[in-house]
Design brief:
Layout lengths: L2 E7 L3 H7 L4 E5 L4 E6 L2 E9 L6 E7 L5 H13 L3 E2 L2
Antiparallel strand pairs: 1-5, 1-6, 2-3, 3-4, 4-5
């Protein structure tokens, strides 16, 4: 079963792609999706905005085989880059 995480940041998706450029494999502007590889695992980031809100919300999907340690390290990286958890 796939694992998920939820974050938010006050940037647009193109700037998020720049922040994560060392890990980005592809960027699908039509579907607001960034695919990255982090520690050999694929991770998908889907961006969206809510009504009248400039905050970018990110839904993160991890491969089902992604270890808890890799998820922890990736989410730690995101918080260091200014992302905030969106529970």
């Amino acid at each position: 079963m796939a694992k998920e995480g939820f974050f938010k940041i006050d940037l647009d998706l193109k700037k998020v792609r720049e922040l994560l450029k060392d890990f980005v494999v592809s960027f699908n502007e039509e579907y607001d999706e960034i695919t990255i590889i982090f520690r050999t695992f694929y991770i998908w980031l889907y961006g969206y905005y809510e009504d009248n809100d400039s905050t970018l919300y990110i839904n993160i999907k991890y491969e089902s085989q992604t270890t808890d340690n890799v998820i922890f390290l990736f989410e730690k990286l995101l918080t260091e880059l200014g992302f905030k958890h969106n529970y």
